[in-house]
Structure to design on (503 residues):
């Protein structure tokens, strides 16, 4: 059976694992174990940190242009290997290959941003802030950063983290999900092939024991996390208590508001991909649709039914499939339990995706698309994140009611409004209490030179991921106030020093 190992500095013994503990990696299409991943422990992490400490000062001293060249080469290598990476990703996660290619590409978008790191690292300068006094600032790396990434985007999210961190001059330790760890390891190998010095990017595997070791290690200065909200809150509290910078992105329950004037055909087409694509295993999925007015709701439902019936669920290598299996049996059970909860709470289950079997792949972790109508805000199935191919219709009587739904929900990651009315869209975008807003865009993930981050229980910490916000997170600012006397004046003639702001 294939084994996935840590990617460490060559000086570290690979065999150090926590009592030989390991995790199983499934093929979601077949429902069978295809590989194992060795779990590390605190001792292994300590060795990785020591290797990072030894390598980081020289990397930080490398000028930003030379660091950028590593990212140019890495981008070239990933593009040359994108088919291999997509197939490998699909084989462990289950998403269709087209989605896996998108996973890789969205990560590469951030790598492209990192290629311009010399520009964004430039500091500020003020000449003549006081008599003969200049003030300037510089951004310097923190030292060693770490990333803890989820199973649902095993290429994109690691690149969102290690790209800016390393470009800014830090060393980085990545702990990917133990469910699909092979692509993160392969990306780290390609970074080395691109010229990244040994010890600057290392990959360690594990479960909560490794997470806690990362959060507690005194030499790790910052941690970036993406996962469920409860764990994100735990990571944030424990990391901050240990004196670290922490950005911890949590769960979501994104809403799509459908105004009466919306292009209903476009709405349904967008919902098919945003609600069911990648089997709904996305924090930026659109699992709640809010039609405004009964007529809007009835028209939406009428068009949704044939669109859902036309969805093709298949193995991840099926080019005609709209989505593949979920990641493992436990997650399939969790999603099906949420569907039953919705039924028990009184929502109308219009389409039931439970019990779906794909011919020839009966043991695979497949779930058919499900649709609920007449969902209400007091239902737990509405309040919590299902993270599967389940769409819920929550009917609103007015624009104001539709605005309140995402604004008052515990999560505040993303939201979308579908309308032809510019005033309504502008008003909604301004007033809604959510971090990322789409106007006729169902999945409003910002481009790489902006930043990603939600509000409320969708994010803990003060700084978003990637873009300029990411650069700020992975650096610290040093400000210098300098005076250079000309050396010609008599000491008795010199005026007393006055702080520039008081001069």
């Amino acid at each position: 059976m294939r084994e996935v190992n840590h990617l460490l500095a060559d000086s570290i013994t690979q065999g150090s694992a926590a009592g030989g503990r390991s995790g199983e990696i499934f093929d979601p299409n077949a429902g069978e174990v295809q590989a194992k991943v060795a779990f590390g422990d605190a001792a292994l992490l300590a060795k990785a940190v020591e290797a990072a400490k030894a390598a980081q000062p020289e990397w930080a001293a490398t000028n930003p242009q030379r660091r950028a060249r590593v990212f140019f080469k890495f981008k070239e290598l990933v593009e040359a290997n994108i088919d291999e990476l997509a197939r490998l990703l699909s084989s462990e996660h289950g998403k269709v290959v087209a989605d896996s290619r998108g996973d890789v590409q969205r990560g590469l978008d951030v790598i492209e941003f990192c290629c311009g790191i010399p520009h964004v690292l430039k500091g500020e300068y003020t000449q003549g802030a006081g008599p003969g006094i200049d003030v300037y600032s510089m951004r310097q790396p923190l030292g060693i950063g770490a990333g803890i990434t989820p199973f649902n985007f095993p290429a994109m999210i690691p690149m969102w983290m290690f790209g800016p961190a390393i470009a800014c001059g830090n060393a980085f330790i990545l702990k990917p999900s133990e469910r699909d760890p092979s692509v993160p390891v392969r990306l780290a190998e390609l970074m080395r092939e691109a010229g990244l010095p040994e010890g600057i990017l290392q990959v360690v595997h594990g479960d909560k024991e490794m997470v806690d070791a990362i959060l507690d290690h005194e030499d790790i200065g910052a941690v970036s996390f993406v996962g469920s909200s409860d764990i994100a809150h735990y990571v944030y509290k424990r990391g901050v208590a240990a004196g670290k910078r922490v950005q911890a992105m949590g769960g979501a329950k994104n809403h799509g508001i459908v105004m009466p004037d919306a292009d209903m055909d476009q709405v349904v087409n967008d919902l098919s991909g945003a609600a069911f694509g990648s089997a709904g295993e996305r924090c930026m999925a659109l699992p709640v649709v809010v039609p405004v007015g009964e007529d809007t709701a009835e028209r939406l439902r009428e068009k949704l039914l044939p669109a859902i019936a036309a969805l093709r669920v298949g193995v991840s290598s099926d080019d005609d499939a709209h989505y593949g299996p979920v990641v493992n049996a436990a997650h399939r059970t969790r999603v099906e339990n949420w569907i039953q909860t919705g039924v028990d709470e009184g929502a109308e289950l219009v389409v039931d995706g439970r019990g779906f079997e794909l011919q020839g792949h009966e043991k695979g972790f497949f779930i058919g698309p499900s649709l609920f109508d007449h969902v209400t805000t007091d239902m737990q199935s509405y309040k919590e994140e299902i993270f599967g191919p389940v769409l819920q219709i929550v009917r609103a009587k007015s624009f104001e009611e539709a605005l309140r739904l995402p604004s008052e929900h515990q999560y505040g990651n993303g939201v979308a409004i579908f309308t032809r009315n510019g005033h309504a869209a502008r008003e909604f975008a301004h007033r809604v209490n959510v971090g990322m807003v789409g106007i006729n865009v169902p999945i409003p993930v910002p481009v790489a030179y902006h930043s990603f981050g939600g509000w409320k229980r969708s994010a803990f910490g003060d700084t978003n991921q990637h873009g300029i916000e990411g650069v700020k997170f992975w650096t610290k600012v040093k400000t210098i106030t300098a005076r250079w006397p000309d050396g010609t004046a008599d000491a008795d003639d010199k005026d007393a020093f006055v702080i520039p702001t008081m001069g």
